[in-house]
Amino acid sequence: MSGKRRRKLKLLSEAISNNRGANVEVKDENLELQTWADLPAELLELTLSRLTLADNIRASVVCKRWHSVASAVRVVNQSPWLMYFPKFGDCYEFYDPVLRKVYSLELPELNGSRVCYTKDGWLLLYRPRTHRVFFFNPFTRELIKLPRFEIIYQIVAFSCAPTSPGCVLFTVKHVSPTVVAISTCYPGAMEWTSVNYQNRLPFVSSIWNKLVFCNGRFYCLSLTGWLGVFDPVERTWSVLVVPPPKCPENFFAKNWWKGKFMTEHEGDILVIYTCCSENPIIFKLDRRLMEWEEMRTLDGVTLFASFLSSHSRTYLSGIMRNSVYFSKVRFFGKRCISYSLYDFRYYPRKECHDWGEQDPFDNIWIEPPKDFSAHM
């Protein structure tokens, strides 16, 4: 091979080598430019939403974008779970709406009983055959008996966990449209105390009334929307001169009373009205003006509504905020449905929202323990 040809091949080889090196440098430079902050928004939100609170806070200092997403999906408070009461057997299921998981517990202690209320992880139950009333914690299996009491057409609530000082049970039953009998009890009492009170306004008791303890008082929403207030310390009762919330006429259709819920949030009384053909309407009691104010937003709060007791939470995951989670189950499985005030729609969209066929004692929201695995 001539020297001239040999030099051409050498120059060609060097050119190819230099070109490959340049390509590698470009690829390396592109790789160096790509960071964790460049993750797709959906993937980043999914990843950060599964972190614990401590890890979420650590991740939020990576960059501004991560801080924004981490704050949006951060779970500070624990969501209540939906507890299902079986028609037969002793197997009770608990649905976690955050992780969308179902857990099961065998609870033979509840055989033959009917749920009345729940608060602070405790259930209040009633056995119709024996009139036995008792507290039960399904996670610790603690049981606290109470004096026998006949509960027929009224509902019962309690102020705080029965292991806490100051726990009071309350129920109200009308004697006549203008007279009610209020009964109270507490853990360790030998009997219930019942006193009749005169009403300035008609107040009728019903299993469809709603009860909530707020600011040291029991608030009871009657079937027709009037609000009664009982102070267990002063032992006073009154029906507030506040006209019932104004709803569209089609809300008062067949079984309209079943789509009504009440809870409290940071000292405010909230009432939710639903109808199968309309979106829910949420009202807040304005104590200054003594009227019900319609709420267009929950400002990030999440409500969990069920017939016998409802709850409110702040700082749940981003997709759960500004929403109402109902205890109604989907037709294709034991999952609750929700309504978003951000999107003005139900999830799932094509679910039937007729509450007329719903059994009020079929399920209830309950506060789970921090570590459920310890109770399995």
TrEMBL record:
Pfam families (UniProt xref): Beta-prop_KIB1-4, F-box
Q: Which InterPro entries match?
A: F-box-like_dom_sf, F-box_dom, KIB1-4_b-propeller
What PROSITE patterns does this protein's entry cite? Answer: FBOX
Q: Which protein, by its recorded name, is this? A: Putative F-box domain, kelch-type beta propeller
